[in-house]
Amino acid sequence: MRMYDIIYKKRKGCELSDDEIRFAVNGFTDGTIPDYQMSALAMAICFNSMTDRETATLTSAMAKSGDTVDLSEFGELSVDKHSTGGVGDKTTLIVAPIVAACGAKVAKMSGRGLGHTGGTVDKLESIKGYKTETTVEDFFKQTRDIGVSVIGQTGNMTPADKKLYALRDVTATVDSIPLIVSSIMSKKLAAGAKSIVLDVKVGSGAFMPDLESATVLAEKMVEIGKHCGRNMAALITNMDVPLGCAVGNSLEVIEAISVLKGETVGDLKEICLALSANMVALCYKISYEEAYAKALHALESGLAYNKFKEWIAYQGGDESWIDDTSLFPKAGFIYEVKAKESGWIKAMNTATIGNVSSLLGAGRVTKTDVIDFSAGIELNKKTGDFVNAGETLCTLYTNKEEVISNAEQLYLSSLTFSNMAVPKPDLIYKTII
Ligand code: URA
Q: How many domains are there within the chain?
């Protein structure tokens, strides 16, 4: 078999056989197929797509390209969630303890942030002492002991995806449905959970710009997961507005803690309950309504907050920071961005807001950039809110005084105003099960 013929076949719009797909993935992983040939195949897939069978084969070949986690000792109770990436998305910090407080097992490997989106691992590391690197044995032991463990990706999992994602990033081949499906689902399948809930974001801060493409993506991921024996659900949610009011690592942790303490309600709490309820429903095979009641009880009784503290302490984090969030270090410069005009906020460009947060020091442009945990943005007004000229739109937190002026301009450029009332946007568009 020759990679040349596989590229040519896909370029002509023909269907690849399972053997051809496995040949390409295995050869690319072991280095016998060079980057330039894999890039050409990725581009041909972008133009000519893949059938469901081809996508399933690609996903499973990528999932098997490296180490896999076996969570079968937890039976039906192991559960994972995945967000396709958003701004202000700190849901794992709230959902994991809610679901664990309901008795399920959340053994999760999370990623770091890159570009305009944040990553759970960075957020957790903003808590003094929290360790995201651990042995696989400790990861399992913690899940057995307390039902929740969240670490960074360990070992040699899905090397095919790591290599291919890096190529796609620089060859304009990221936004292809079969390539996104296989990238996300290969990692989720390798991570081993029996039930998986996907949060597919749609809007200005997401990969998927419209509901139609997000629906296709979600349906295909759900189908592939089920085909591989997993219980699946996907929520399609709004990323035309940042989630919650905090963007930036420790600011987001503090906001998550305030939801767990019952001090903050609104979009963040609502989406976390919906995600948790779907996870609990899949694990226990109960109705969404029954699962929602369990999740709400876990949150409102304080069980989830206690579980969060237990989890953070188990991984070395300083519990006193959870009880008293004023212990998180503060940024040296705090600056309020004021509205230049009165009106309703009609739209927010969420990716731009993510970029403002990065500029302030909260994110990475390249993988090796060092994050400032205290940097970020607090949103005082969001889409649908009325603002008077001179009122605070948001508060910027940074240790780099020199970026404040650019950050302010960029933030203002992300907003569109209307002189007519604007309805509050929907939060959850649909659920696919
Ligand atoms: N997230 C991933 O992990 N892979 C993609 O291709 C897109 C988003």
A: 3
Q: In this structure, are 387 and 285 located in the same domain?
A: no
Please name the residue that has the structure tokens 């969060």.
Answer: 308
Is 228 found in the same domain as 187?
A: yes
In whole angstroms, give the CA distance from residue 95 to residue 106: 10
* Cβ(164) – ligand 1 distance below 6 Å: no
Task: Give the residue among 136, 224, 215 at the shortest CA–CA distance from 187.
Answer: 224
Q: Domain range for residue 348?
A: 330-418
Considering only CA atoms, give the Rg of the chain.
22
Is the C-beta atom of 182 inside 6 A of ligand 1?
no
pLDDT tens sequence across 126-166: 999 999 888 888 999 999 999 999 988 777 889 999 899 88
Ligand 1 nearest atom to the CA of residue 183, by list position? 4
pLDDT in tens, 266-293: 999 999 999 999 999 999 999 999 999 9
* Within-domain flag for 391: yes
Show Cβ contacts of residue 412 under 8 Å, excluding neighbours closer than 6 positions: 337, 340, 393
In a domain, 38, yes or no: yes
In whole angstroms, give the CA distance from residue 43 to residue 362.
33
Atom of ligand 1 nearest to the CA of 187: 3
- Whether 66 maps to a domain, the answer reads no
Task: Tell me if residue 201 falls in helix, strand or coil.
Answer: strand
